[in-house]
Design brief:
The complex is a heterodimer. Chain A is an all-alpha fold. Chain A has 15 helices and two strands. In chain A, helix 5 runs parallel beside helix 12 and helix 7 packs antiparallel against helix 8. By secondary structure, chain B is mainly alpha-helical. Classes of the chains: A mainly alpha, B mainly alpha.
């Protein structure tokens, strides 16, 4: 029974496809999977937007949306209707073809990333040899759509926002890739399915997730930082800094095209969370062995939504970085740490089983981190934080 | 010569032609991106997954962005109405023809050695990685050193200008 619940979507697919003649089956099953992805993730996007507005409201000591439906839960529907019925305004001097293509390219690229994420046991659309490489290749092409949007609008705010966004995405793509390479080194495969399978083992009822190793923990933190910057989320949301650039690269978009940008941003967030869960948090595997009867897809989507909650929490808590801080942080702090982490992973690999490698690797990670922080503090002439209270 | 190949090659050639023929420089860069994407699809069509995705990652994710950035940061996005045709285009044509001739000659030389009906090799990513780390480790290292040198060179060029500006400000 529980096994059936675990495989319910796979069984459902086989059941539907079973009604068709044999030569139609492969094509139909692919189409059905794609349609499911294209429906499920926008639904999650609606939930995320509502959660975000509610959560930010809580953090900022206000109610958030509470007019549409009970507790404002129908707000996403109202937003959808609004964006569909609004007039689509294209500036007169804008490059209309590129202006139209930019949101389309962004959303298509954002959806393609989900094709390789294993969302449960046997639940992956395309299981290929180098799915991680595919994910990053597709992610890299979203930068071009951001540039297309900013350039084609013929607006200085848009162009500045696009330049900022592209510079930021390129800078943080390097640590993003480097922190994931560690996982590939350990697994010996670029296939995400294989990566999850390796992590789905237990010792004393505890999982073999990569986050529970010194190099894995460091890589996960670096991945989270780079992933936040890659999706242009606060505190790295300079490209759309409202107080400086109106809305950044999508200033000149209205109506449904604006909604597409919004959708693309949240899809990128969801997929980068999903990839983080797959690489470091064991994908669809349960956190304890005695919990492995819970269907695998619940774990995957649970981990994904947990990351979204952290994203919202960070947005409500942290102030925005300055442009020079952003770049210095990427190239002088995150990138050297990812490079040392590669070294740590190699040490871990060649020291073999046993407790010494835990000690050595943790020591290297902690030492490098402390030294770099101290050097940074000294360069900025920063001492311990002091507080002055009104008397 | 299946349908997918015809479609992809038409896309690639169209992108390449548009990159040369369009008047706006940014449009040319975007058309070039289409050609890159078509090339990546050709690799995928041939079953070379690693090469295809690396092509997308490097050429669309980095080279196209670099081209676009260079256009915007050097001359602005405004292009003259009559386009940006160079007067020395015959020289470019000759160079392109020479490169094409060399590549074509190399491919024609290897074709008879392989034979017409030899099966297509299937290469996994693991094999590529092992080959890069064992047999081709020296070229890999040389390229790594070259790229690092280029990176440091770029930083030094940028730093030098920055220092000069500061000195001028002090004066």
């Amino acid at each position: 029974m529980l096994e059936k619940l675990d495989q319910i979507f796979v069984l459902l697919l086989h059941w539907i496809v079973g009604f068709l003649p044999a030569f139609l089956r492969p094509a139909t099953s692919v189409v059905l999977c794609v349609v499911t992805i294209v429906c499920v993730f926008p639904a999650l996007f609606a939930i995320c937007v509502l959660l975000e507005r509610k959560g930010l409201g809580r953090i900022q000591n206000r109610f958030g949306p509470n007019r549409v439906g009970p507790f404002g839960v129908l707000q996403p529907l109202a937003d959808g209707v609004k964006s569909l019925t609004k007039e689509d305004i294209v500036p007169l001097s804008a490059d209309s073809v590129v202006h139209f293509l930019a949101p389309v390219v962004l959303v298509v690229a954002a959806f393609l990333g989900f094709a390789v994420l294993p969302m449960g046991r046997n639940m992956v659309l395309v299981d290929m040899d180098c799915s991680l490489l595919f994910y990053f290749a597709i992610g890299a092409s979203t930068e071009l759509s951001v540039f297309m949007a900013g350039w084609s609008s013929r607006n200085k705010y848009s162009l500045l926002g696009a330049m900022r966004a592209v510079a930021q995405m390129i800078s943080y793509e390097v640590p993003l890739l480097m922190s994931s390479v560690v996982v590939v080194m350990m697994t010996g495969s670029l296939s995400l399915v294989k990566i999850v399978e390796v992590q789905n083992q237990y010792t004393y009822g505890l999982p073999h997730w990569y986050i529970f190793t010194p190099w894995g923990f460091a890589a996960f933190v670096l991945y989270a930082i780079a992933g936040t910057a890659e999706t242009n989320r606060s505190p790295f949301d300079l490209p759309e800094g409202e107080s400086e650039l109106v809305a950044g690269y999508f200033t000149e978009y209205s109506g449904f095209k604006f909604a597409l940008f919004f959708l693309g941003e949240y899809l990128a967030m969801l997929s980068i969370s999903g990839l983080g869960a797959t690489l470091f948090l064991g994908g669809w595997s349960a956190p304890f062995q005695f919990l492995s009867w819970v269907p695998s897809w619940i774990w995957f989507f649970g981990k994904m939504m947990m990351s979204i909650a952290v994203f919202i929490w960070m947005r409500g808590t942290l102030p925005r970085l300055r442009q020079d801080q952003l770049m210095n942080f990427a190239w002088k702090f995150v990138l050297p740490l990812t490079l040392t982490n590669l070294f740590v992973a190699a040490v871990w690999r060649f020291m073999g089983e046993g407790w010494p490698r835990w000690v050595v690797c943790s020591a290297i990670v902690i030492t490098i981190y402390t030294l770099m922080c101290q050097a940074g503090m000294r360069r900025k002439h920063l001492g311990p934080r002091t507080y002055r209270y009104a008397e | 010569m299946n349908l997918a190949f015809l479609f992809i090659s038409a896309l690639t050639v169209a992108g390449g032609v548009a990159a040369v023929a369009l008047k706006n420089t940014v449009h040319c860069a975007l058309a070039l991106t289409i050609a890159f994407a078509g090339l990546a699809l050709l690799f995928l069509d041939l079953g070379a997954q690693f090469a295809g995705f690396a092509q997308i990652l490097v050429y669309i994710g980095a080279v196209a962005i670099l081209v676009v950035f260079a256009i915007l940061l050097t001359r602005g996005s405004e292009t003259p109405k009559d386009g940006v045709y160079s007067k020395r285009w015959p020289a470019g044509l000759v160079i392109a023809a020479a490169v094409f001739a060399v590549l074509g000659w190399a491919i024609l030389q290897t074709a008879p050695r392989l034979g017409q009906d030899s099966p297509a090799p299937s290469v996994s990513v693991v094999q590529i990685g092992q080959a890069l780390m064992t047999r081709y480790v020296l070229p890999l290292e040389i390229i790594a050193v070259l790229l690092t040198a280029a990176l440091i060179g770029a930083v030094i060029v940028a730093m030098h200008e920055h220092g000069r500006h500061e000195k001028e400000e002090v004066k």
